[in-house]
UniProtKB/TrEMBL annotation:
EC number, as in UniProt: 1.11.1.7
Keyword hit for Oxidoreductase: yes
Leader peptide range in chain numbering: 1-29
Any one cellular-component term (Gene Ontology): extracellular region
Cysteine-cysteine disulfides: C40-C120, C73-C78, C126-C330, C205-C237
Active site: H71 (proton acceptor)
Protein name per the record: Peroxidase
Pfam family of the protein (one): peroxidase
GO MF: heme binding; lactoperoxidase activity; metal ion binding
UniProt enzyme class: oxidoreductase
Co-factor note (free text): Binds 2 calcium ions per subunit.
PROSITE patterns: PEROXIDASE_1, PEROXIDASE_2, PEROXIDASE_4
Organism annotation: Setaria italica (Foxtail millet)
Length: 334
């Protein structure tokens, strides 16, 4: 799908999302809409321009930036700790096996930050750049256009050891997913809504290969997988002689429209074509299964809920006011 097509598909939901998400009123330590209006009025425009430029070369960066924002917010809050590089004394979040080599889009953030430092030195945080870039990626993938409040500041610590305990695993069941999101202040309904981001991007075969060949250590495939879909996945992710799968192999999360933020993900789950065990787990209870059906049939309402959930997620444990710092370079502390 070309970028010009996805731009034309964007829905404008700014005012509605602002009401649904409940932006803070502002003041001491609160995130605020148009936070850089007086100090760097071109900030969000510059970020959007860089996202567009990189998506012209590879639409896959859209899913990468949305996922990066999620992984940032779920570990130490939305403080851009995911962007810090490892040092000789510390392995950073981005080098955790959960994130490396699958996480992508760092160069997009770096290019936006370089331009912003030229235009407004020391003003725009890396955490806000990432939040804005994820928002723009959603819109440019055919999802909703919505406002994101700014004012996040950048953290100074990033540890790979904290990632696995905070990022929901693709093997999680419904209770584990619900608890993981609840720990971050997100409801089960918001968990199901945000899971819809799995409609774009790609997944490494190693993230779900157990479902293809050795589900729950049974030596056979997951019996809940749609048989034709199972055959497709086994063809795309063949087992090696040792029973493992090539870690370099990837497949689209939703093969029909891999770059469009639509509701085909939910249709796939209803047809037992969820890629991860955690995707298929959404049918494990009556309330979540009902929400999957509602999302599949109601594209516009789902997009509205998705935008509001993204805004809420973007406010998890943020550093504001005098907390943290404004990094000069997103990959290193000042």
């Amino acid at each position: 799908m070309g970028l010009s097509i996805t731009i034309g598909a964007v829905y404008s939901l700014c005012a509605l999302v602002a009401m649904c998400a409940g932006f803070p009123a502002g003041g001491n330590g609160a995130l605020q809409p148009n936070f850089y209006g007086a100090t760097c009025p071109q900030a969000e425009t510059i970020v959007r321009q860089e996202v567009i430029r990189w998506l012209h070369s590879d639409m896959g960066f859209a899913a990468g930036l949305v996922r990066m924002h999620f992984h940032d917010c779920f570990v130490r809050g939305c403080d851009a700790s995911i962007l810090l590089e490892s040092t000789p004394d510390n392995t950073a979040e981005r080098d955790s096996p959960v994130n490396n080599p699958s996480l992508r889009g760092f160069e997009v953030i770096d290019s936006a930050k370089a331009r912003l430092e030229d235009a407004c030195p020391g003003v725009v945080s890396c955490a806000d750049i990432l939040a804005f870039a994820a928002r723009d990626s959603v819109a440019l993938s055919g999802g909703p256009r919505y406002d994101v409040p700014g004012g996040r500041r950048d953290g100074t610590l990033s540890m790979a050891s904290e990632v696995a305990d905070n990022i929901p695993a693709p093997t999680f069941n419904l209770d584990q997913l619900t608890q993981s999101f609840a720990a971050k202040g997100l409801t089960q309904e918001e968990m199901v809504t945000l899971s819809g981001a799995h409609t774009i991007g790609r997944a490494h075969c190693t993230a779900f290969s157990d479902r293809l060949y050795n589900f729950s250590a049974t030596g056979v495939a997951d019996p809940t997988l749609d048989p034709p879909f199972l055959a497709q996945l086994q063809h795309a992710c063949p087992a090696a002689g040792d029973g493992g799968v090539d870690p370099g192999l990837v497949v689209p999360m939703e093969p029909r429209t891999p770059h469009a933020l639509d509701t085909l993900y939910y249709w796939g789950v209803l047809r037992n074509r969820g890629l991860f065990a955690s995707d298929q787990a959404l049918l494990a209870s009556a309330p979540t299964a009902a929400q999957v059906r509602q999302s599949a049939y109601g594209g516009y309402p789902w997009k509205l809920k998705f935008a509001a959930a993204m805004v809420k997620m973007g406010q998890i444990q943020v550093l504001t006011g005098g907390g943290g710092q404004i990094r000069a370079k997103c990959s290193a502390v000042n």
